Amino acid sequence: MPQTGLTIDELAARAGVTVRTVRFYSARGLLPPPTIGPRRIGRYGPAHLSRLDLIGELQHQGLTLAAIERYLQQLPGDISAHDLAIHRALVASWLPEGTEETDREKLERRLGRPLAAADLDRLAAMGVLERTADPDAFRVDPGTLHLGLRLMDMPIPVDAILAARQVMLEHARAAAHEIGRIFRDEVWEPDRVEQMRSLSAQMQPLVVQALVTTFQRSLREEVRAWPESDARPGPRPSP
User: Fold this and answer.
1) What is the pLDDT of residue 140?
2) 156 neighbors 121 (Cβ within 8 angstroms)
C-alpha cells in the first residue's frame, strides 16, 4: 500500500529549505510532529508545508525567530492548511511590490512534479507568473506563488480563472479608490505629508485583513445560498 504524505526530505524540497531547517523548526515547536508510519518514518502533510511557507514569509518580513514563535502561538492549534495559506497571503501583502526571476527547474522543485504547458497557462491566468522571451524563464509574484501552486489542480477551467481574476481586480481597484478617497478627505493633512504616508502604510495590513475576512464570510454566505439541487445557481435579480 503506497504511503501518503511527504518524507522530511520531500517536505524540505517542496518548501525550499534544508532538512536541518525543518528539524530545527520542529525542535522549537514551530511545526507540529509528523505522523509516524511503518518503519518509524515520519510523514508530513499540507499543513506542515503551509506552515513552513508562512514562516518563510514572516522571515522575509523581517520578524525575528522569537516574534515568529509568538505569531504562530496565536494561531488555533487545529488551523487548516487553507487558513495557513490565507495567513501567508496576508503577510505577503505587507511586502514591497515586485517580482522575482525564476526558471522551470526551480518551480518544478517547489511543486514536486513536472510542469506541463497547461500548468503554466493556469499559473499565468492566475497572475502568479509572467512568461519571458525564454520559454523556461519566468517572472513570478512571490506573494501569490504558493497559493497559485495549490490551486493548480483544482478542476476549474482557465477561462473561469481569468473571469474571476478580472472581477477581483475590478472590485479591488474600486475598493482601493474609495478607501483612498476617505483617507484623503477625512484624514489627510497637507502640511504633514511624510507622517500621512507613514500612517497610510501602517493601515494597509489592517485594510487587507479586513477585506480578506469580509470576502471569506461573504463567499461562505453565497455558497450556502446556492440551491442543493444539481442546477447551477442563476444570476441574482437586480435590486
Assistant:
1) 82
2) no
